[in-house]
Amino acid sequence: EIVMTQSPATLSVSLGERATLSCRASQSVSSNLAWYQQKPGQAPRLLMYGASTRDTGVPARFSGDGYGTEFTLTISSLQSEDVATYYCQQCYDWPYTFGQGTKLEIK
Amino acid sequence: VHLVESGGLVVQPGGSLRLSCAASGFTFDHNSMHWVRQSPGRGLEWVSGITWNGADTYYADSVKGRFTISRDNTKNSLSLQMNSLRPEDTALYYCAKDMYATGRLANWGQGTLVTVSS
């Protein structure tokens, strides 16, 4: 099974500042990497797939990068509505696996 | 797209439960489907997936041999049969629609809560 590791566990960023979240795979997943946003009390939402393609309706301040084993999700200018937990998921090989999540807070 | 899970209950360890997911708003037999769970205060855990025609099924190691995923394309329905339940199976179980057969979970239901406790 491919193990996904996210860092940091918690990230505190000021409004309007850049937030960078990291995800590492235990073996190459090519570009088969998705990011999800989960706000408290809500179901997860697909943000990004193919490592760098925003899903429909996702604001342009969200961007994804990476290939192989190292990936990043960047929010260029943090907004209050971005407070959430973010998960990466590899969809390269079964069983599909998630990282443990990064909780994004306002500093 | 609308996904509605049902069947969550309080069940004793060793017991069984069957979860269902009613799908609407898309062509159900065009997509793989998945179950994902989230234990209270914890992260997401992919549980099981099934291809569009039910020919192939996949499971997390933690549930393999105990859970069975199935689908009925005539009823736009996804199911998860859960046997030999353990306290660590306690979680909110989400049904999720694949972006075709890519593993990308494009749409999610609101979940159904399973509690395994004596």
Question: How would you characterize this protein structure?
Answer:
- The complex is a heterodimer of chains A (107) and B (118).
- By secondary structure, chain A is mainly β.
- Chain A has no helices and 11 strands.
- In chain A, a hairpin with a 2-residue loop joins β7 (62-67) and β8.
- The model of chain A has no long low-confidence stretch (mean pLDDT 97).
- With 118 residues, chain B is an all-beta fold.
- Chain B has strands spanning 2-6, 10-11, 17-24, 33-38, 44-50, 57-59, 67-72, 77-82, 91-98, 105-108, 112-116.
- In chain B, strands 2, 4, 5, 6, 9, 10 and 11 form a 7-stranded mixed β-sheet that branches.
- The interface between A and B is medium-sized, with 24 and 23 residues.
Largest sheet of chain A: 7 strands, mixed
- Percent of residues in β-strands of chain B: over 45%
How would you classify the helix and strand content of chain B by structural class? mainly beta
Query: Percent of residues of chain A in helical segments?
Result: under 10%
Largest sheet of chain B, described in full? 7 strands, mixed
The CA-CA distance between the termini of chain A, in Å, is 36 Å
Oligomer: heterodimer
Strand content of chain A: over 45%
- Mean pLDDT of chain A equals 97
Uncertain segments of chain B are none
> SSE string of chain A, helix = H, strand = E?
EEEEEEEEEEE
| Tally of individual helices of chain A | 0
Structural class, judged by helices and strands of chain A? mainly beta
Rg calculated over all Cα atoms of chain B: 13 Å
Report the strand count of chain A.
Answer: 11
Layout of SSEs?
The complex is a heterodimer of chains A (about 110) and B (about 120).
Chain A: E1 4-7, E2 10-13, E3 19-25, E4 33-38, E5 45-49, E6 53-54, E7 62-67, E8 70-75, E9 84-90, E10 97-98, E11 102-106
Parallel strand pairs in A: 2-11
Antiparallel strand pairs in A: 1-3, 3-8, 4-5, 4-9, 5-6, 7-8, 9-10, 9-11
Chain B: E1 2-6, E2 10-11, E3 17-24, E4 33-38, E5 44-50, E6 57-59, E7 67-72, E8 77-82, E9 91-98, E10 105-108, E11 112-116
